[in-house]
Model the fold of this input.
Amino acid sequence: GENVEQHPSTLSVQEGDSAVIKCTYSDSASNYFPWYKQELGKRPQLIIDIRSNVGEKKDQRIAVTLNKTAKHFSLHITETQPEDSAVYFCAASKSQAGTALIFGKGTTLSVSS
Amino acid sequence: GAGVSQTPSNKVTEKGKYVELRCDPISGHTALYWYRQSLGQGPEFLIYFQGTGAADDSGLPNDRFFAVRPEGSVSTLKIQRTERGDSAVYLCASSSTADSPLHFGNGTRLTVT
Done:
């Protein structure tokens, strides 16, 4: 089955800096890669996703890149703000019926002002 | 409803007891997922329903765990003979199709004493 590795496990940056979180996946058939943000005690919430037919997707300060050959994808947050502090999870799945989303172990991002 | 609803929000039970956790997905969502999240970990896949049937139950850790979705809407996760190692937050998520982003509930925090 699919296995998703995520690095780093913790990341501390100064406000205004960029943050990059990287994930690798094992199943070359996976084609859907979402990122979730989870604040303490809250539910995971989707912040951005990418499908295998594109290499990059941006949404304001957040971008995701995908390298299918290397089987890795990354989350990029620019101009970080204290409210970006949270745990971020990457995930992967084969987006057809009957396949589940498999998550990485998470990255705790701390943005200090 | 406006989002995925899970009840109870907290459940404390004694080792060996039986528990049921309920999930009300977003109205009209055909896909429903159960995940388990331990402290400091990513959501761990348990089971996925498409309609009334379990499309993938490969994540259920053993036969003490069972889930149903008899009418294709509400789902119940059942745990028999609970063990202290079952303590975790149990998350439910739904999506409009198998190919759509997941929307998570707030989870049920299960504590087995």
About this structure: The radius of gyration of chain B is 13 Å. Chain B touches chain A through 24 residues (CB under 8 Å). The mean pLDDT of chain B is 94. Chain B has no helices and eleven strands.
